[in-house]
Specification:
The structure is a homodimer. Chain A is built from 14 helices and 7 strands. At the A-B interface, helix 8, strand 3, strand 4, helix 10 and helix 11 of A face helix 8, strand 3, strand 4, helix 10 and helix 11 of B.
Chain lengths: 306, 306
């Protein structure tokens, strides 16, 4: 019977751990049964649900936005960090680090309303392509993970994204590409200012950071947005470790999963040295913390969606 | 057919406006049809879903907590604002204003984990009774609103709470009393700190305010938590006006509703002079802003749940 589910996952310990866990929490009367309301599953996005190489999709989006802004202000082309973005100088971008890069990206939309931003994002996702994978960014998602999200929801899990990526950029596509509605997406955010414009209430994105949703902030934002401890969490970097441990150390059945990008042929192979989102501590301590490692190379039959 | 729904609502303009709105947005092929994903409805809590007199239920909870703390530190009984709380001196509490009172209430749980807090709240709700209504606080909810929430969900609306009340206190009961799960509750909050305690990850409530979810902050928090503009919003005070206008001024069909507490006999009669949550501007401008007034006296057949 389990041959029908998760068809893009190879038989092996990772797939078995998922199937076993879902069977246990959904078996009524069983020792590990969890009512549907408690079946909260949280997923990182960059590197967990879609590709984050050579830089996060957020960064490509910021590059496109900066290119537009630079048409009005050509001097930007000579100023850092804009210069690095505009020249796709990934080395310099990596050196800046994830929070600095993302904050810069968020700042390019200060003064824009959430609805204007949604139009900008929709337009960009409609045509922008990943430079190395030669596919739309919205199609840089992992097929095995789409199947896992569907499988969990079929078993009455509620699936959430908890990502360092900008909350509004993700929300523009998550329902379409993952089946996850905007209200189940948690991410980094800037402050929003309520304003009446020509008799119409709008929310304006400010330049001030509200939350950088990474590391210890992830479980804190789960507390704020969800208010329940997840029973399953899935990540791929040290930025997810606090969330994985928050899920794993709750009472009752728990499953924490970590993708290891070890597949240079079909995707990318990286861990400790990826400065925008390193995987080191979580990899070294996975056993000790009870985290199930997923090897992209070994555990996934296919990588990207068709 | 419509006689079956909203049985605790009297026939009249408010009930008719609700039925008409729901019929329009759910009629496939109609000009005002909205897909289920867009059917977001946001409700204030204090004074909209449950009673907020003579003070918000949050304040009674804080009183109980302070009484416990005062057993260890009797000097608190002589210090303001604790003295006013411990003596149930509502006049002084009203003079402090809602934000000051709520912040004080939140501060009584600094250092407590979210799970410890949940146990404290569960214990309190199990036995604490409203002093004037002589019923459990968890039963101080309005029957017509419970019916409205059910009716909206039956029509594939997703119902949210957006309240100035403390997010964790509400989440302790909202699923049980309103059918609204924790992840659909937005409220005031303190910052949460991730911590490992004896190998177990916990979230600790800090004394620092994260968000006081009132007035212009309500739509901003809707932007953060939901990421979609509600098509229906329901409130009862000036603290809800920004949310009502945010819902009402979106494109397409919209419904904004405002309860007027004008029923001294069955509940309480108050508006402009209730300093903890006045209703003045929203009442004066309801017509201009297209907000539908609900008179508790005229529109509700019954007030409280059985």
């Amino acid at each position: 019977m389990t041959g029908d589910v998760l068809p893009s996952w190879n038989d092996g310990p990772a797939r078995a751990a998922i199937l076993d866990f879902v069977a246990r929490v959904t078996t009524e009367g069983g020792a590990d049964f969890m009512p549907p309301a408690e079946r909260i599953a949280t997923f990182d996005n960059d590197g967990t649900l879609w590709c984050e190489q050579p830089v996060q999709i957020q960064v490509f989006f910021a590059q496109a936005r900066l290119a537009e802004l630079a048409e009005k202000d050509p001097g930007m082309r000579e100023r850092q960090p804009f210069k690095a973005f505009l020249e796709h100088d990934f080395k310099t971008i990596h050196d800046l680090g994830k929070q600095a890069v993302f904050e810069m990206a968020f700042a390019t939309h200060a003064g824009v309303t959430t609805e204007e931003f949604a139009r900008i994002a929709t337009d960009w996702f409609a045509t922008a392509r990943h430079p190395r994978l030669d596919r739309l960014f919205a199609h840089c998602t992992y097929q095995p993970q789409i199947e896992l999200l569907d499988y969990l929801r079929a078993n009455r899990f509620k699936t959430f994204i908890v990502s360092g990526g900008g909350i509004d950029l993700m929300r523009n596509v998550t329902e379409r590409i993952y089946g996850i509605p905007p209200e189940q997406v948690i991410g980094s955010s800037v402050k929003l200012r309520f304003e009446m414009r020509d008799g119409r209430a709008v929310l304006v994105k400010e330049s001030e950071l509200n939350s950088f949703d990474d590391r210890e902030v992830k479980p804190a934002n789960i507390g704020l947005h969800i208010g329940r401890r997840p029973i399953l969490a899935f990540g791929n970097s040290d930025g997810d470790l606090a969330m994985l441990r928050y899920a794993k150390t709750g009472e009752g059945p728990r499953l924490a999963l970590l993708i290891h990008h070890d597949d240079a042929e079909r995707e990318f192979a990286y861990d400790r040295d990826f400065r925008l989102s390193p995987l080191a501590e979580a990899l070294d301590k996975a056993d000790e913390y009870g985290i199930t490692l997923v090897s992209m190379k070994r555990d996934w039959k296919t990588v990207f969606v068709n």
